[in-house]
Write a sequence for this structure.
């Protein structure tokens, strides 16, 4: 059709030229323009000439001009071939996005998209605790995850990362005698398989020697890279997390105190860090929180609404002997289960109150069974959750090491949606909805506690530091 | 025959596809995913150690100066009284002891016990046959002081401000507080970097029996802190 239009359009100037050049009605383009401006005037040429053959020729040429213009302007239907046509123009396909963010307490938000190919191994540490003593106050941190993409996350997982680091120098194709890395999290055993990953590309190498925690280089045996791995590529020991001695969590002695300073771990001779004794002693829990959406994912209490997490705190409001006490005001720094005994102490005075409902870290008061206080307990009276403390102090299972080995990459923990306290939806196809509805966010409390088993000598745990990580992973909806 | 060959080719192709799928499973099914790792969380324990300084002029003994096993136990600190000190009945001997917390943690509790008290003949003296560790033997007290060695609180055998000398107190201490399960509680231990000061006093009673002549009481005092 377009070719026909071009042909007809070509006739238009031909007709116009012949019309003008042939004389008659309009003797020139100027006359034609004048007539167009003043159509009530007669053409300059004599109308008697309209019967001339030249005039008839001009009429034919004028028809050709009209046909040409009409064809050009789209009168496709004037041609004698049947046709029909519809157009769905502007069709497009665009992929969605599946990204997530992670914020520890009120710190800087960490985005998966900020890492290499949606893998960001450098989010903030969850906890940084020092000078911990057995049975001391536990510590928790809040980790808020959000689906920041346009697609629903069909699955949300938590797992302990392998012994890991990231490249600090690019690896190019060819021989690779060693890897330059950021301080290693965990320890490597000679012969372990070291995987370097960047996006979809990865390659496995073999570690020549054992490598200590926080080391910045891994020697490789007979390694030849077939890829380019840029700075920031992930380095993992995929042989790790099999036993408590090969976990991502690793122990070192705290630094020596130096002259005039208190002793550090390095000043002591009875606290060997080998085999990660501190990682194997410190309890860990991961508690999901939300209004009527509490669930214990990791730790003592897994599968219920409440992880065992001891609370040691102090009254923020005094108690009076009358009227009865129905609530205790204090900063809850663990988790309290309904029916737990809340032990309050001030000097020689003590009293146990019974919690009437669960309370979670961050709460500022706990309802208790109505009872008369046996003393006017002042502010700062010591408050302890007896049941939680007792349970934690005899717990030798739910440690950081246990998390590392039981929840390693190959046994990642699916974090199904929590539908009510202690209940999850295992049939769900969406673990975290797309941004930015309320269901795109999930909040977790991560806590640590060094138990104080009754009568046990824990001197070997003095002056040690455990370092560990945790990884959150989302997959698209299947 | 040719038809059979065609079917074989088709089946063979399927077999190849199946084989490839089996061998490359991880890469075949593309999914979108995101990963975040919170690295480097740490938890570090504190240290609970203390020093024991008998009289300011002598060497400071540290709890972590002993062997690795059992650890944080040092049984080689200075004696409170030299065995060459010959005591007369009614003559008081004292030793100043400074207990200082040298670790990063506060000592929640400080206690003391006496693992043993044994009688031995005084070197170079005729043995009288009496037992200074026994009834009628030496008298003992433990007096807390301030940093200037001014008495503040008696911790043994009474809770008065100033300790008295009382009969049979060495015997009583040794008999009733021989180990970690039967300590004399000295109250809250020093906070990190802080000290507490004590004077340990001992005397043979003025009316001591002649049988105590030429006899020596050999005893130890063990100081213990907990967090």
């Amino acid at each position: 059709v377009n070719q026909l239009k071009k042909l007809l359009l070509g006739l238009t100037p031909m007709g116009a030229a012949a019309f003008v050049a042939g004389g008659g009605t309009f003797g020139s383009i100027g006359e034609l323009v004048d007539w167009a401006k003043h159509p009530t005037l007669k053409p300059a040429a004599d109308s008697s000439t309209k019967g001339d053959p030249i005039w008839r020729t001009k009429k034919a040429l004028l028809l050709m001009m009209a046909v040409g213009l009409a064809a050009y302007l789209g009168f496709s239907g004037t041609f004698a071939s049947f046709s029909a046509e519809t157009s769905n123009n502007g069709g497009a396909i665009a992929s969605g996005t599946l990204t997530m963010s992670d914020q520890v307490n009120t710190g800087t938000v960490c985005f998966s998209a900020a890492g290499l190919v949606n893998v960001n191994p450098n989010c903030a540490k969850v906890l940084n605790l020092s000078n911990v003593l057995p049975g001391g106050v536990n510590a928790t941190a809040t980790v808020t995850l959000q689906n920041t993409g346009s697609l629903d996350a069909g699955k949300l997982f938590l797992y302990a990362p392998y012994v890991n680091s990231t490249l600090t120098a690019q690896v190019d194709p060819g021989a690779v005698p060693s890897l330059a890395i950021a301080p290693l999290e965990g320890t490597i055993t000679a012969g372990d398989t070291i995987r370097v990953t960047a996006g979809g590309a990865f390659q496995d190498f073999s570690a020549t020697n054992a490598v200590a925690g926080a080391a910045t280089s891994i020697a490789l045996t007979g390694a030849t890279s077939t890829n380019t791995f840029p700075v920031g590529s992930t380095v993992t020991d995929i042989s790790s997390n099999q036993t408590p001695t090969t976990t991502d969590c690793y122990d070192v002695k705290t630094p020596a105190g130096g002259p005039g300073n208190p002793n550090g771990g390095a000043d002591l001779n009875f606290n060997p860090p080998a085999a990660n004794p501190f990682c194997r002693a410190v309890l860990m829990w991961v508690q999901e929180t939300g209004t009527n959406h509490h669930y214990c994912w990791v730790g003592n209490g897994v599968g219920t609404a409440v992880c065992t997490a001891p609370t040691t705190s102090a009254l923020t409001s005094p108690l009076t002997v009358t009227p009865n006490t129905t609530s205790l005001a204090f900063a809850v720094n663990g988790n309290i289960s309904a029916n737990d005994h809340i032990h309050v102490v001030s000097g020689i005075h003590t009293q146990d109150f019974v919690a009437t409902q669960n309370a979670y870290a961050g709460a500022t008061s706990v309802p208790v069974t109505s009872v008369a206080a046996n003393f006017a307990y002042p502010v700062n009276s010591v408050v302890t959750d007896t049941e939680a403390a007792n349970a934690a102090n005899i717990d030798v299972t739910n440690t950081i090491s246990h998390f590392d080995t039981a929840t390693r990459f190959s046994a990642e923990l699916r974090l199904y949606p929590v539908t009510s306290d202690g209940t999850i939806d295992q049939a769900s196809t969406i673990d975290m909805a797309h941004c930015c509805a309320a269901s795109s966010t999930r909040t977790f409390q991560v806590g640590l506690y060094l138990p104080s088993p009754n009568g046990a000598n824990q001197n070997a745990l003095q002056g040690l530091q455990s370092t560990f990580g945790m990884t959150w992973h989302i997959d698209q909806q299947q | 025959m040719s038809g059979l060959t065609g079917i074989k080719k088709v089946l063979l192709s399927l077999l190849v596809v199946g084989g490839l799928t089996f061998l490359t499973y991880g890469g075949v099914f593309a999914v979108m995913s995101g990963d975040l790792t919170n690295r480097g969380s740490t938890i570090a324990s504190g240290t609970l150690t203390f020093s024991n300084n008998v009289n300011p002029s002598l060497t400071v003994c540290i709890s972590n100066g002993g062997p690795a096993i059992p650890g944080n136990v040092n049984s080689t600190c200075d004696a409170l009284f030299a065995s060459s000190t010959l005591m007369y009945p009614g003559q008081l001997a004292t030793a100043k002891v400074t207990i200082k917390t040298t670790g990063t943690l506060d000592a929640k509790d400080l206690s003391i016990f006496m693992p043993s008290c044994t009688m031995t003949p005084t070197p170079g003296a005729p043995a009288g046959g009496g037992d200074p560790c026994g009834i009628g033997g030496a008298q003992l007290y433990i007096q807390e002081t301030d940093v200037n060695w001014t008495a503040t609180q008696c911790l043994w055998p009474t809770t008065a401000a100033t300790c008295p000398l009382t009969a049979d107190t060495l015997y009583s201490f040794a008999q009733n507080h021989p180990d970690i399960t039967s300590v004399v509680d000295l109250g809250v231990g020093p906070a990190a970097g802080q000290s507490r000061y004590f004077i340990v006093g001992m005397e043979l009673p003025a009316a001591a029996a002649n049988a105590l002549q030429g006899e020596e009481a050999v005893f130890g005092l063990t100081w213990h802190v907990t967090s």
